[in-house]
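Entry: Branched-chain amino acid ABC transporter substrate-binding protein
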Amino acid sequence: MKKILSLAFCSALALAAVQGPARAADPIEIGVIANLTGSAVKTSVQMTRGVELAADAINAAGGIDGRPVKLIVEDSENRAQEALNAANKLYNVDKVPAAIMFGGSGLMIPVAELAKEKGRVLVNTSSSSPKLGNYPGTLFSILPLDDIVGKELGLLMADSGAKTAAIVVPNSTFGLGVAEAAAAAFEAKGGKIVKKVAFTEGQPDYRADIQPVVPAKPDVIITAGYGDDSRAMLKAARELGLTAKWYAAYPSILEIENKDFLDGKLFGVDNGGYSQPAGKAVADKYGAKFNGTADLMAHVYYGYDALMVVAAAIKKAGSAEPAAIAKALPDVVKAYDGATGKIAWDARGQRIAPPIDVIEYKAGDFVTTATRN
């Protein structure tokens, strides 16, 4: 009986809130699409935590013109069809004006097609294919694209004095895009690619893929990847006795299989914003909410900035209509000092000239040793 009375009381309060003059401001609903089950879960959860932190900050400051932000989170299972199902639900049922998404280009591009068709906004926090530039006014990227990060990686390798390199990347748009840009920059500086391996993701053992790299004896290895695949790939390299140094795009998203194997032998480039004060402030918020920063990854910062710029666009436009958000976004990023640094977009809504950190793996941690741009 007590439970029934409690529910009735709550219902009465809700009805009074709707009917009476003290009705609370309606929330602004924003969608989030992430891999909460399946593969690449860890990095996806990190992105959603970043979005949560931004929502907390926005709502603690009074919301957007008095309206709180409400997140509606859907699971893509790291599968294209499920990502589309999630987006359909958010855009068609929940009627969100914008969604923030984690996923590779194989998921991001189909969702971008749907967002374009529905006239909605999609904010990319994880995909880096240059093909994302085909959706101006619909898809806006917080993450720099492969051609930018890959070029910086290739230049870093050349600056290290390396003369030869092997490529070991997943056979995906991300892996191949990074490898192509890094190799082009490295070769332009006189370097030589001596072996190329594009492995199929999802294998339990990668020794057969890595074995051909051993006799090539490269000075360095270009790599990219994340999750269990990167862990298994690096394990195979260790077991086969590869001694070359590794150069990775976004090294902190690799799953390190053996700390000693890569100590002082893993380098890379990443977006440099989160080593700056705004990024450090987000790290502090993360530690307070999630009991420390031991598991904090770069995707927290991308998720945080994604919601912050959407909120700023809604405020500037004075409207949560998708077209108004899309129109305001390019203007608000110009004045936004983000957790991932200053954001500059080209006419397609794709990030250009990001701050780039040079990273080295030392004693079980990723250490920023320099900043480019």
